[in-house]
Amino acid sequence: MLLLTLLLASPLAARADDLILLLQQRNCPDCRLADVDLVHADLRDADLQRAQLQRANLGQARLDGADLRKSNLQFTNLRGASLRGADLRGSTLYGTDLRQADLSGARLDDGALEQAHWQGAHGINQGVRSHAALHNAGVTAAENGQWKQAETLFSAAITAEPSEPLSWVARGLCRGELGNINGASRDLAHAGELFGNQGDEEKAQQLQEASQKATATIDNPASKGGNGVGSRLLSGALSTAHALAPIALRALSPMLP
Length: 257
Description:
Serine Threonine Protein Phosphatase 5, Tetratricopeptide repeat
């Protein structure tokens, strides 16, 4: 009955043979299963090498030990899925939703998560947590108003690549939103120094002015308590990039609905 329901729910009836093969034998390399709905499916140790799983719904699925090498997982929903020990090397993870997924022991290429959404995922190898992956995750958190989580992610990105000024700018904005104006001012000033070291005197000057403006708000009662002034700290001083998204130029991962 479950198999029949899955077949009827799939918009790709022509690929029913692949779906049957996968569910019955868990052995379906080169499967064509784009857009298929397999929520909560048990696919432990499945052979899905080179599978076409773009936009598939595999939320809460069990994929422990699955072979997903060179599979297409663009915009695939793997939120809350268990991927313990799965092999995802060479797979495409553009826009893939891995939030709250368990990736303990999973094998991933370095930088594989740079264009995926993985906030709240568990067991991520440190080598995969590249600067861009951490920074992009911070951008997504900030755009969803999760300022504290975003600050933590930007801090981790700074640790991974302390010479990248964009992460300092982004963390400064988060700290402004959280009411930490001193911290915001310091981050913006340091970002200005880094831009100066790179020869970008215009951005360096703008950020130094923004830092001074931030410091000037400390004595203003309206700036106390994390009431959203952070997004206004760069107004005028950084008029072309006063919101987080335009500043976070390395936020390459697409937004999820």
